[in-house]
Specification:
By secondary structure, the chain is of the alpha/beta class. It has a single domain, classed as Response regulator (Rossmann fold, 3-Layer(aba) Sandwich). It has five helices and five strands, in the order βαβαβαβαβα. The chain has helices at about 15-25, 35-40, 65-70, 90-95, 110-125; strands at about 5-10, 30-35, 50-55, 80-85, 100-105. Strands 2-1-3-4-5 form a five-stranded parallel sheet, with helices on both faces. Helix 1 links the parallel strand 1 (about 5-10) and strand 2. The model is unreliable at about 130-135 (pLDDT under 50).
C-alpha cells in the first residue's frame, strides 16, 4: 500500500482519544480523532478511512449504532470496538455487526496493533481490484 493508512478514532474521553492518536502516529499511521460518532460521520475524510476505532459508550450515538449507521450509508470500514465495560451481549453485537476486534480497556498496545493489522488486511481484501489485478 503506497498511501499511509488513515486510522480514525471515536472516543469521548479526551485522554484516551489523545493517547490512541499518539500511539497511531508513533506507529506511522495517519490518525484523526473525534469526540462523537456524529462528528465522525460528518467528516469530509470518511471515505478515506482505512480503519475505525470506536468506543462503545459515547455521548449520543453509541459505537455499535455507529457501526450500523456506517453500514446503512454504504461504508464498509473495518472497525475495532473498545470498551471499559465488559458485556458479552455487547461484544456479540459488535462482532456480529462486522467488528474486526472487540478490546477491553485498558487497551493492550500489542493487541491493538494486531487488530489494526487485521483491519487493514480486511480492507485490502475487500478493496475494489485495480484494472488488470487478479488476472493470472
Amino acid at each position: 500500500m503506497s498511501q499511509t493508512p488513515l486510522i480514525m478514532c471515536v472516543e469521548d474521553d479526551a485522554s484516551v482519544r489523545e493517547a490512541i492518536k499518539g500511539l497511531l502516529v508513533s506507529l506511522g499511521f495517519a490518525a484523526e480523532v473525534f469526540s462523537s460518532a456524529e462528528e465522525f460521520i460528518q467528516s469530509s475524510r470518511l471515505g478515506e478511512t482505512s480503519c475505525l476505532i470506536t468506543d462503545v459508550k459515547l455521548g449520543g450515538m453509541s459505537g455499535i449504532e455507529l457501526q450500523n449507521r456506517l453500514a446503512a450509508l454504504g461504508h464498509s470500514i473495518p472497525t475495532i470496538v473498545i470498551t471499559a465495560f465488559p458485556d458479552e451481549r455487547i461484544r456479540a453485537q459488535a462482532l456480529s455487526a462486522g467488528a474486526v476486534c472487540f478490546l477491553y480497556k485498558p487497551i493492550n498496545k500489542d493487541e491493538l496493533v494486531d487488530c489494526i493489522d487485521s483491519a487493514l488486511n480486511r480492507r485490502s481484501d475487500t478493496a475494489e481490484p485495480e484494472p488488470g489485478d487478479g488476472q493470472q
